[in-house]
Amino acid sequence: MVLNLLRLRGPMSRADIARITGLHKATASGLLEALLARQLVKEIGTGPSTGGRRPKLVTLNASAGTVIGADLGVDYLLVVMLNLHGQVVWRKRILEPGSANPGEEVERLAHLIEEAVASVPPAPLGLLGIGVAVPGLVEDETGRLLFAPNLGWQDVPVGDLLRRRFDVPVRVENDGNTGALAEVWAGALEGAGHLFFLNVGVGVGAGIIIDGEIYRGARGMAGEFGHTTVDPAGPLCNCGNRGCLETFVSQRALTGLVRRGADTGPTTLSAEAVFQAAERGDPAAIAALARVGEYLGIGIANALHTFDPDVVVIGGPMARGGPSILNAVRRVVEQRAMPSIRSHVRIVVSTLGEDAPAIGAGAMILQEFFRIPGTRAPARPFRSYDDAAGAPLLGTRGSRHRRSRSSGTGSR
């Protein structure tokens, strides 16, 4: 409670902490002394006097520990390291085609995590945990990736593979959910109560925030918005159905529209090339982005009618489409959504860009560390200053981590 207060409110005096939390002054002072001893908080000078001695101010020591946020994408790997304020202190993204061998891909991710840990000076509490965003259905309690159609993976124990390498808690979550969490944790929409986040890239995932909490559904699998049907006779989707939303708004859909709209052109074309062409004013690129925006607007109008959010955030690589997509989305929503529902909704592009899922994955670990109410406990629970006397905080071994006894995850 005290740590989270300092995270949210910044420097304050012992008397302010006791007053806001309702703790007795002696209790609040004792907790702060314990936190100071563990380097979780630090004194930063004095505040203004109210008639007596100037009070000493304490604040969260953001560099006391670190967390890893990772995004295991279809054609990239991204790892960020966050401090206790959720600020990125290290980042690396690797563009590569996804491997058909899940063990090899998780092994590459593990090496990138090791690089992050080795590149940042050790923190007093070390690495507190690893959060991983993945593009598919996840078994929340174990971190098993049940089905990822755009990766071609099924029943992959991502969480267990990483736990064999790192002696810290590991959480695995759908990338739409982690992207939504990033927006309310570290983005411009911090504190939003009802939010609908769309991660649009190779596929389309969604994260739903209701009353400030991620909505996961009965079995933790809510948010597969890209596999809602737009056209029953439409293109074949990687999930096996036809006419899913993501077949109309993905990067592949965008490049297909450009190729069909041009008389001549390259047989291979990237979404990034389309974005750059649109910025130069290319009419075929602008028209293709607008068409994608129209279909995305149809999907968002359906989401407004279903969830009634305060804000819709468009994230992922396709958010690079900028005004060409966003204007089309807003126009279609204006046409299709009921006025009483759409009138209060903001539709915006993510301020965190393509980093949102990775940042949100790290924020999952921070949520557990700060014991924020309403979050689900990981399989390996955290320990904090109010545990048994003398019990160490998880992570006090610094940046060291345990390697698997096997030669690597790829052989398993």
TrEMBL record:
<dbReference type="InterPro" id="IPR000600">
    <property type="entry name" value="ROK"/>
</dbReference>
<feature type="region of interest" description="Disordered">
    <location>
        <begin position="381"/>
        <end position="412"/>
    </location>
</feature>
<keyword id="KW-0119">Carbohydrate metabolism</keyword>
<dbReference type="Pfam" id="PF09339">
    <property type="entry name" value="HTH_IclR"/>
</dbReference>
<feature type="domain" description="HTH iclR-type">
    <location>
        <begin position="2"/>
        <end position="42"/>
    </location>
</feature>
<dbReference type="InterPro" id="IPR036390">
    <property type="entry name" value="WH_DNA-bd_sf"/>
</dbReference>
<comment type="similarity">
    <text>Belongs to the ROK (NagC/XylR) family.</text>
</comment>
<dbReference type="Pfam" id="PF00480">
    <property type="entry name" value="ROK"/>
</dbReference>
<keyword id="KW-0859">Xylose metabolism</keyword>
<dbReference type="InterPro" id="IPR005471">
    <property type="entry name" value="Tscrpt_reg_IclR_N"/>
</dbReference>
<comment type="function">
    <text>Transcriptional repressor of xylose-utilizing enzymes.</text>
</comment>
<protein>
    <submittedName>
        <fullName>ROK family transcriptional regulator</fullName>
    </submittedName>
</protein>
<dbReference type="InterPro" id="IPR049874">
    <property type="entry name" value="ROK_cs"/>
</dbReference>
<dbReference type="InterPro" id="IPR036388">
    <property type="entry name" value="WH-like_DNA-bd_sf"/>
</dbReference>
<dbReference type="InterPro" id="IPR043129">
    <property type="entry name" value="ATPase_NBD"/>
</dbReference>
